[in-house]
Design brief:
Blueprint: E1 3-13, E2 19-29, E3 33-37, H1 44-51, E4 59-64, E5 67-68, H2 73-79, E6 80-83, H3 95-105, H4 110-123, H5 139-151, E7 157-161, H6 169-184, E8 188-193, H7 196-202, E9 205-210, E10 213-219, H8 220-224, H9 229-238
Parallel strand pairs: 3-8, 3-9, 6-7, 7-8
Antiparallel strand pairs: 1-2, 1-4, 4-5, 9-10
Bound molecules: adenosine-5'-diphosphate.
Length: 239
């Protein structure tokens, strides 16, 4: 089996003393569409932060596409695209500048980046907004801009933290189609979500995390065992 992500016994205690992760193991196959589910404060963002090297683990081993996250930090960064929950671009910057600057951050010239940027802005319905300041975009467009920006360097792994939070139903469906196609074309995708329906529609494997521990994981049908995801989820997090 080839893995995109291997986490072994990951612990994280923040400086405040909060224990966010209590030794989690997680193995995500290359090409998977994987959901990390759990209530607020479960440890989802911490897990993602560790993969994206924004959060320093307290202990444990992380490898991404068989690369050690510490020894091959730059290569690991180049293989990951992250869509964080919060909009974190400059609101005065134009849409196309935001994506071109991100490409520059990964060492791509404008000419090298242009074909992918054109493709992404078109696919995400942002082509007509290239010259708009990002503050002029709707919430759904801002979310799509975050996705375009995360993909400019063609990462093999895309990580989305609550990608459809606050996104209306119609747009959510469009975003699902976009992500499904991306996954079919070979990109491994990990998402965290509160929407169980989202996980059920999109994901082949899931893990349910609560209070810093993985409580259940496997293929969607293994985890469901004939029940609805809501039933399984509530059973776990009420314990
Ligand atoms: P989730 O994404 O599942 O909501 P988080 O990973 O954000 O969970 O949080 C897990 C725990 O760690 C929570 O108790 C949260 O309050 C705490 N936590 C998260 N980030 C920090 C931080 N930067 N400093 C201190 N505690 C944090």
């Amino acid at each position: 089996m080839k893995y995109a992500v291997q986490l072994e016994k990951i612990h994280k205690t923040y400086d405040s003393g909060t224990v966010a992760l209590k030794g989690i193991d997680l193995h995500i196959e290359q090409g998977d569409f994987f959901a990390l589910l759990g209530p607020n404060g479960a440890g989802k963002s911490t897990t993602i932060g560790i993969l994206a090297q924004l959060v320093r683990k307290t202990s444990g081993e992380v490898s991404i596409f068989d690369m050690n996250i510490e020894q091959q930090s730059l290569e690991v960064k180049a293989s990951i695209g992250l869509v964080p929950q919060e909009f974190n671009f400059n609101i005065f910057e134009k849409v196309e500048d935001i994506v071109y600057n991100q490409a520059g951050y990964y060492g791509l010239t404008r000419n090298e980046a242009k074909p992918e940027i054109d493709r992404l802005l078109l696919a995400l319905g942002l082509d007509g907004k290239r010259k708009s300041k990002s503050m002029e975009l709707s919430g759904g467009m801002k979310r799509r801009l975050m996705i375009a920006r995360a993909l400019v360097h063609k990462p093999r792994l895309l990580i989305l933290d609550e990608p459809t939070a606050g996104v209306d139903v119609e747009l959510r469906l469009e975003m699902w189609d976009f992500l499904k196609e991306l996954n079919q074309n070979g990109t491994t995708i990990i998402l965290t979500t509160h929407y169980l329906e989202e996980a059920e529609k999109l994901c082949r494997h899931i893990a349910i995390i609560d209070k810093g521990e993985i409580r259940k994981g496997g293929t969607m049908s293994e985890v469901l065992g004939g029940k609805s995801l809501e039933e399984v989820y509530l059973d776990i997090i009420k314990k």
